[in-house]
Amino acid sequence: MVLATKSFGQDPHYSQYYAAPLFLNPAFAGSELSTRVGVNYRNQWPGLDANFSTFSAYVDTFLEEYNTGVGFLATNDVEGAAGLHSTSLSGMVSYELRLAEGAYFRPGFQATYMRRDIGFYESLVFANNIDPTNPFGPLLPGTELAGFGEPVNLLSLSLGGLFFTETFWLGFTGHHINQPNQSFVQDGFSHLPMKYSFHAGYRISLGNGPMKRDFTHTYRERYFTPTVNFKKQGPFEQLDLGAYFYMEPILFGLWYRGLPYKPVEQQSNRDALVLMVGFNLPSGLNIGYSFDYTVSQLGIQSGGAHEISVSYVFPPKNPGAPPKRSTILPCPKF
């Protein structure tokens, strides 16, 4: 009945949303002004049968002669006990505009091919699969219903923008602006709702601490960065509010996810506390791990969520050349 009438779908999400920059906003394509590669893995609620597993990999680079960033993102997501399987391939492009001294704006565009498969006959059991003389025995081969349960192929279009200075950034994204039809039923309609995202942060310097006590006078960078990420898709809303503390090369993060002031069906709208630790090495390698401690009624027996991110930023081809811009994007790499 749900498939035949109307259903709501949600995109996967990452707690380390800045460690999945192209997943968050196409305007981040080429934002490092160098070539970057990365992978992200999330395992949500491993203690339940109805868990979620998401993997993505990306690569992006900056074409200096065109002042343009380009990127490619591949994502694989498995949802719930029925095993809704979604695979997507995305291409994106961004353009960097200098608004004033130390102030920039980057619009971005993304086109995504999506294939969704619910494993209609592999994962679900129908009445004609059950032997009435032995209901708990082996399942019988069912008769496939024409037009039901075939994989769905979608084309999704998305837009994004990112404004930043040396210490502040503000981004917005509109995913699935064409709201493609994701129904598994022939001639059915279940449009993938648009997903809006607003994300911002402010980087507060805590001064430099010593790294090497020798004649090189090398200093350790330290800063505190509060961040916020709000998402809305269909009837669902989510807010991540927290901060990073960075003391080179180690970074710690703590966030709260939920909207306690906006209950859902008279239930408190709270989800998780997110704790994170990461390493940002001078070589360009970044590694992060986070754990979501579930504070909703689902409880910690759900297993929370584990997330791992790895990225590598390739060194510039001409290390001695002047920087492409004086303002470095203050957004963390996690």
Automatic annotation (TrEMBL):
<protein>
    <recommendedName>
        <fullName>Bacteroidetes-specific membrane protein</fullName>
    </recommendedName>
</protein>
<dbReference type="Pfam" id="PF11751">
    <property type="entry name" value="PorP_SprF"/>
</dbReference>
<dbReference type="InterPro" id="IPR019861">
    <property type="entry name" value="PorP/SprF_Bacteroidetes"/>
</dbReference>
